[in-house]
Each structure stands twice: as structure tokens, then as C-alpha cells.
Design goal:
By secondary structure, the chain is mainly β. It has helices spanning about 1-15, 160-170, and strands spanning about 45-50, 55-70, 70-80, 90-100, 105-115, 120-125, 130-140, 145-150, 175-180, 185-195, 200, 210-220, 225-235, 240-250, 250-260. The protein has one domain (about 1-20, about 40-260).
């Protein structure tokens, strides 16, 4: 039971898209609308549920935008926490991504608190040298578990940056296989974008929200049982804020629903017939 509940909350970290194998040789150079830019200080809070049970929350924050080596870099963080009183679960994880202007990853790091220690993971992407450095270990007392380098045949997404990549690509109907590096695997995410407006209802507002839909598929089983089909509904505006998302784990489906937000000048757009 404990492992399953951990699986459900961990799945929430990658709810917008889960990664798998990439076999193509294409180099991705995508253009983005200036109207779909990230807003520093934006915060989004989601409730994670399995069936009728609320298990915890995922909070997403755009921390900073800076210039590094003459390149624009966005820094975003995801906080994953289980609720107190959930049997057998005490889960607290932090994921951070440093993204280029095309929303591919330069650096990814994670902190995962276990019962006896906190573990860390770092991925450093050096596309000029075509390498990915991996460092993993325990924070205290310090211990290095992995210190290795692998090749980077492509530019890659990490498990968090792909969420923002998906947001910035809404607006037209198309599909793409995106190369990712997750759990030390070179994998891919299939993303299918749609442009038909649909209405979505959530508890946080008293009207139907104007949204567009995304779905995709993973053909492998990842950590904690993430696998198969996923879908999400994003606001049909320049912010492309995810409102609801669903994803399959090995023995069931989980749901994320937008609970609160902090984004200057923004409210969810109303759906109009």
C-alpha cells in the first residue's frame, strides 16, 4: 500500500507528460510565440487524487529568468507533498529545472526526503560537448552513489521542463516525439496537441473554463509504475495554464486539479458557446 501511494504522488510530478525511448536523429529548433512567455513569480497549486481520496499537492513555481553565457534561462521548481494523516505516506520531494529559451533542459536537480535521509539527483547537460553528467547521492551524512557521464545525442527535456515545453507549444493541432532524459534513461514523450475549445469545470471557480486538450502515451513502465496514456486540459489563452490532468499508473488512474494560482493579471478564461 505504501509503495502504491508513493507511486501515485510521484506520478503527479510528471503528470503532464511521462518520458520514453527516442530513436530519431532530428535536431529540434522550434520557434515560440512571444505571447506565450513564462511569468517569473507564477505559482500554481494542484490537488492530487486517487478515486475519492485526496493524497497531497503539487506546487509549481517559476523562480527566475536570467542570462547565462549569453543565453536566456528560466528556473522553475515543483514541490510535491503528501497530506498529513494519509496512512503509510510521508512524501516530500523538490524538483528544479533550468531551461533554455526553447524550453529544453540545461540542468535538472531533485531532492527526495526518505525516512532516514534525503537523496539528491543532478543532471548537467553540456550540448557543446554532447555530454550529460549524472550525480546522485545522499545529502547528510554526505555520500556519492553515482558520478558518471553519458553522451547527449540530442537536446533533451527533463521530467519537469517538458511540462513547460508543452505549455509553450499550445495553439495548433500537431504531434511530436520529444527526447527526454529521466531516471538516467534516454527516452521520449509523445505529445498530441489539439486546437478545439472544450469546457472544463473545477472547484476553484464557479464557471466553465475555456480549455484545449493534450494527450500522449508512454510505452514503457517507469519508476513507481508510471505507464501508458495521459491527458491534460490547458487554458485556451496566452498563459496555457494546465487546469486538469489525468495519468495512468499500473493499477489505476490519478487526477490533478488546479486549486490556486498566482499569476499577475490572469484569471481562467470563461468558456462561451
Amino acid at each position: 500500500m505504501k509503495k502504491f501511494l508513493l507511486a501515485v504522488l510521484f506520478a503527479a510530478a510528471l503528470i503532464i507528460a511521462s518520458p520514453h525511448l527516442f530513436s530519431g536523429k532530428k535536431s529540434y529548433t522550434l520557434s515560440f510565440s512571444s505571447e506565450k512567455s513564462l511569468q517569473v513569480g507564477e505559482e500554481l497549486r494542484y490537488v492530487v487524487s486517487y478515486s475519492f481520496l485526496n493524497l497531497g499537492e503539487v506546487r509549481l513555481k517559476v523562480k527566475d529568468k536570467k542570462i547565462v553565457n549569453k543565453q536566456t534561462v528560466y528556473i522553475a521548481v515543483a514541490y510535491i507533498d503528501s497530506y498529513k494523516g494519509i496512512p503509510f505516506v510521508d512524501l516530500h520531494q523538490i524538483y528544479e529545472t533550468h531551461m533554455r529559451a526553447d524550453y529544453f533542459s540545461n540542468h535538472f536537480k531533485a531532492l527526495i526526503r526518505a525516512e532516514k535521509y534525503t537523496a539528491y539527483t543532478n543532471y548537467f547537460f553540456d550540448y557543446e560537448k554532447k555530454t550529460i553528467a549524472v550525480k546522485k547521492g545522499r545529502v547528510s551524512p554526505p555520500q556519492v552513489w553515482t558520478d558518471s557521464v553519458t553522451t547527449a545525442e540530442h537536446i533533451y527535456q527533463d521530467g519537469l521542463s517538458i511540462f513547460y515545453f508543452a505549455r509553450m507549444n499550445f495553439g495548433k493541432k500537431w504531434s511530436i516525439d520529444v527526447p527526454c532524459f529521466v531516471t538516467e534513461q534516454k527516452v521520449k514523450t509523445r505529445l498530441n496537441f489539439y486546437d478545439e475549445p472544450v469546457k472544463v469545470s473545477i472547484d476553484a471557480v464557479d464557471y466553465d473554463i475555456n480549455c484545449v486538450r493534450l494527450d500522449g502515451y508512454t510505452d514503457f513502465v517507469s519508476v513507481f509504475g508510471l505507464t501508458g496514456y495521459f491527458e491534460g486540459w490547458f487554458t485556451n489563452d496566452e498563459a496555457s495554464v494546465p487546469v486538469v490532468a489525468k495519468m495512468k499508473v499500473i493499477i489505476g488512474n490519478i487526477r490533478l486539479e488546479l486549486k490556486e494560482w498566482k499569476r499577475e493579471g490572469w484569471t481562467p478564461p470563461k468558456y462561451r458557446n
